[in-house]
C-alpha cells in the first residue's frame, strides 16, 4: 500500500507555525520574524524558505507559477513545481496573469501583479546588515534602535571607491520608513515594483530561518543619497533580440559567432507571450 | 459536512492573511464556519481562527463570563496552554466581554519588545456584526489612501489601542470575528482616526 502524501508536503503543525510567523511578518512590515524552518526534500539555499511559505499558503483552488531568475523552465523552478504538483494536484502555469501564487527566485515578473496574487520570494541572506556585522544579537539590536548608519556607510564607501553604488542585486530598501530590509537578490530594476505593490509580497529564508513581508500599498524606498539618487539598471537604446521589448529587464549575451553582445528578455514567459501575440497578429493580417 | 482540518483551515488562513495585509477588508469564511456547527461556546468564525493559529506551542487567555467553557473547548481542540492575559500569545474576547475588562487586558497584555516585536499578543475579538458604519477610518500599510473601520469602535477602545501601538514596532494585532462568519483585522501599523478630524491626536 502506498501512503498518500500529506497535502502540500508539510504537516499541519509545521504549516501552523509558518502561518503564525507570516501573520506577524505582515503586521510588522520589513521585520524578520524567526521561524523553525523545516527540513525540505531540497537542499537549504535552493529556496526552502520560499517553498515552505508556498506550502503553508497553497490550497486546492490555487494556480502556481514558479520562476528562477526570470525563467519558468530552469531546474530550480521545475523541481519546486513538481513537488507542489505531486503533493497538491493543483495546476501550474507560466502565464503571470493566470497565477494566484507566484514563487520566485531573484525576479519580480514584468507583468504588474494584482491584489488577488501573492508573490513569494526566496531569500538567501535576509539580513541587510550582515555584511558588516556578523552577530545576529547585534544586528537585532541595530534594527531595534533603527541604527542604520552602517548600511548607509556601505553605500557611501561604494560611491567613494567606484563613483556609484555597486550593489547590483539586493540593494537595501527602507520599509514604511522604519526597517531596512534586504529585498532578496532582485535586480535594482525590480526594487520600484515593491513600492505600493498591489500584491502581498512574502519573503522566506529557509537556511537563515526568517520570514518577512511587504504588505500591499506600503512605502518601499531604495536607500540612496540626495546627490546620488537610486538608479535601476539602464537598458535605454536596447531591446530584446526575440520580441523587441524595451523597458524590461534584459540579459546581456555575448554571441561568439559575431563577436557582438545582444540582449534578450530575462522574464521568459513575458517574452514568449509577446512573441505569441506578434505571431497571431501576423497570421490574422496575412494577405495571399 | 465535516470541517476539513487541512482545506477549511487553509481557506481561513488565506482570508486571514489577506485581512492582515489589507486592514479594514472584511472576508467571508461562512462556508467553513457553517461546518463548525458543533461550536456553541463562541462564534464558529472565532473557533476557526483559533483552530488556524493555536496549538501546543502557544498560549492563550479568554476574557468574559463564559471563559471557562470556551477555555475548555480550546484546550480540547488545540492543546494550547491557558495562561494569564499578561503572558498570553493569543487573547480571546468573546462577544459579551465588558469594555472595562477588555481595556484593562489590552493595557496589560504583551506588546513585544523593540528587539522582538513579534513576541506580542494577537487579539481575537468577537464583534456584533462586521461591516456596519463606524466613525473611524483607517490608514497605513496595506491601505490605499483610506479604508473604513470594519466595526463600530468606542473612543475608549481606540485610545487604549493607540496607546499600546504608539511605539512601533511594538504593539498588538487585532482580529475581529462575527456571528455571520465574517472576519477582519487591524494590525499594529494601522492608524485609526476619527472621520471628522483629519488627524486624530491624543
UniProtKB/TrEMBL annotation, chain A:
One of the Pfam families matching this protein, by short name: PhnJ
Assigned keywords, A-Z: Lyase
InterPro entries reported in the protein's UniProt record: PhnJ (IPR010306)
GO biological process: organic phosphonate catabolic process
GO MF term set: 4 iron, 4 sulfur cluster binding; lyase activity
Protein name stated in the entry: Alpha-D-ribose 1-methylphosphonate 5-phosphate C-P lyase
Protein species of origin: Bhargavaea ginsengi
UniProtKB/TrEMBL annotation, chain B:
Alphabetized InterPro entries for the sequence: PhnH-like_sp (IPR038058), Phosphonate_metab_PhnH (IPR008772)
Coiled coil start-end: none
SUPFAM superfamilies (UniProt xref): PhnH-like
Pfam families, A to Z: PhnH
GO annotation (BP), single: organic phosphonate metabolic process
Superkingdom of the organism of origin: Bacteria
Protein name from the UniProt record: Alpha-D-ribose 1-methylphosphonate 5-triphosphate synthase subunit PhnH
The organism of origin for this protein: Bhargavaea ginsengi
Amino acid at each position: 500500500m502506498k501512503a498518500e502524501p500529506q497535502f502540500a508536503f508539510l504537516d499541519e503543525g509545521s504549516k501552523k507555525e509558518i502561518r503564525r510567523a507570516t501573520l506577524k511578518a505582515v503586521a510588522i512590515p520589513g521585520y524578520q520574524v524567526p521561524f523553525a524552518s523545516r527540513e525540505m526534500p531540497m537542499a537549504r539555499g535552493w529556496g526552502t524558505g520560499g517553498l515552505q511559505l508556498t506550502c503553508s499558503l497553497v490550497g486546492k483552488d490555487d494556480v502556481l507559477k514558479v520562476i528562477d531568475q526570470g525563467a519558468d523552465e530552469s531546474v530550480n523552478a521545475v523541481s519546486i513545481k513538481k513537488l507542489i504538483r505531486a503533493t497538491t494536484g493543483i495546476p501550474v502555469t507560466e502565464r503571470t496573469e493566470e497565477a494566484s501564487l507566484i514563487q520566485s527566485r531573484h525576479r519580480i515578473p514584468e507583468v504588474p501583479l494584482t491584489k488577488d496574487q501573492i508573490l513569494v520570494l526566496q531569500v538567501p541572506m535576509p539580513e541587510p546588515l550582515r555584511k558588516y556585522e556578523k552577530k545576529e544579537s547585534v544586528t537585532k539590536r541595530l534594527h531595534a534602535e533603527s541604527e542604520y548608519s552602517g548600511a548607509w556607510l556601505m553605500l557611501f564607501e561604494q560611491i567613494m571607491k567606484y563613483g556609484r553604488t555597486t550593489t547590483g542585486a539586493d540593494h537595501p530598501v527602507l520599509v514604511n520608513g522604519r526597517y531596512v530590509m534586504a529585498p532578496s537578490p532582485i535586480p535594482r530594476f525590480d526594487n520600484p515594483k515593491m513600492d505600493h505593490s498591489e500584491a502581498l509580497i512574502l519573503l522566506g529564508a529557509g537556511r537563515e530561518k526568517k520570514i518577512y513581508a511587504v504588505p500591499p500599498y506600503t512605502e518601499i524606498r531604495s536607500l540612496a543619497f540626495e546627490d546620488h539618487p537610486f538608479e535601476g539598471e539602464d537598458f535605454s537604446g536596447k531591446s530584446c533580440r526575440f520580441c523587441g521589448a524595451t523597458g524590461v529587464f534584459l540579459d546581456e549575451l555575448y554571441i561568439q559567432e559575431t563577436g557582438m553582445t545582444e540582449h534578450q528578455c530575462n522574464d521568459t514567459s513575458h517574452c514568449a507571450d509577446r512573441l505569441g501575440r506578434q505571431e497571431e497578429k501576423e497570421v490574422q493580417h496575412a494577405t495571399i | 459536512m465535516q470541517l476539513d482540518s487541512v482545506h477549511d483551515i487553509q481557506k481561513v488562513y488565506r482570508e486571514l492573511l489577506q485581512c492582515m495585509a489589507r486592514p479594514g477588508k472584511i472576508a467571508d469564511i461562512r462556508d467553513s464556519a457553517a461546518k463548525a456547527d458543533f461550536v456553541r461556546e463562541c462564534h464558529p468564525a472565532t473557533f476557526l481562527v483559533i483552530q488556524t493559529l493555536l496549538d501546543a506551542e502557544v498560549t492563550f487567555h479568554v476574557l468574559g463570563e463564559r471563559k471557562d467553557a470556551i477555555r475548555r473547548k480550546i484546550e480540547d481542540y488545540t492543546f494550547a496552554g491557558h495562561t494569564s492575559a499578561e503572558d498570553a500569545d493569543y487573547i480571546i474576547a468573546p462577544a459579551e466581554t465588558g469594555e472595562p475588562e477588555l481595556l484593562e487586558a489590552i493595557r496589560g497584555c504583551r506588546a513585544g519588545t523593540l528587539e522582538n516585536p513579534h513576541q506580542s499578543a494577537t487579539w481575537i475579538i468577537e464583534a456584533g456584526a462586521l461591516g456596519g458604519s463606524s466613525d473611524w477610518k483607517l490608514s497605513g500599510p496595506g491601505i490605499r489612501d483610506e479604508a473604513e473601520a470594519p466595526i463600530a469602535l468606542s473612543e475608549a477602545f481606540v485610545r487604549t489601542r493607540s496607546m499600546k501601538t504608539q511605539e512601533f514596532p511594538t504593539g498588538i494585532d487585532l482580529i475581529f470575528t462575527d456571528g455571520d462568519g465574517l472576519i477582519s483585522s487591524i494590525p499594529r501599523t494601522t492608524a485609526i482616526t476619527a472621520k471628522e478630524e483629519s488627524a486624530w491626536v491624543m
